[in-house]
């Protein structure tokens, strides 16, 4: 009986000793990580893993470049991505443009005017000719132009990208989607995509957001206001008499002020103060 009690006591002591070792191991882990750990708390363990991953990502981002040229290249890539995100609010350019870098105002491929023009509309040949002339000007400016001239090219590039997103969309009074759109909705959409600026929805309100501009003083991005047969109509000026237009008969097209109809009903341009 005495032997049995002695043996039982020894086992109990051994068990306590093992438990103490296990507890001591957990305590040591707490000291190392600076946080409490619980075998039944999986979120605590996962948080610790996430912290390690975060540290690795930060270190990679802040890694010093081996050479100055590598550092400059890295910075240029960052700027290009950020500005591209601002410009390309709709990721669909219908192959009219391939790439654009606004940080150094270099366009790697100019537009194809043949993909931008609806040949069934009146004066389509004039629009094609005007776009061809515009592209030639862009080529000359990108080679030898001033900084301000290159900025104008960049703006026209953005306007044409926005147009290509909506090209061919049918006209629908009150419409504001790819299923149908009216003139003021298109004008607002173009401003949203190019400038990140929200115009009023109604035509009569859009023409109140800036200064009135005469035809000979129009610049790319100005709103152009028409009053055909007692109706209000807005569009976005592209340059060289061209404007981005939601026509009631042809849908979203590029039109020209050299067209007799549009020239007759043109009233004035509007230069938006906020852009």
Automatic annotation (TrEMBL):
The keyword GTP-binding does not apply. Belongs to the peptidase C40 family. One of its GO terms (molecular function) is cysteine-type peptidase activity. This is NLP/P60 protein. Residues 24-92 are annotated as: Disordered. Residues 24-60 have a biased composition (Polar residues). It comes from the Bacteria. InterPro entries: Murein_DD/LD_carboxypeptidase, NLP_P60_dom, Papain-like_cys_pep_sf. Residues 65-88 have a biased composition (Basic and acidic residues). GO terms for biological process: proteolysis. Keywords: Hydrolase, Protease, Signal, Thiol protease. Gene3D superfamilies: endopeptidase domain like (from Nostoc punctiforme). SUPFAM superfamilies: Cysteine proteinases. Residues 153-273 form the NlpC/P60 domain.
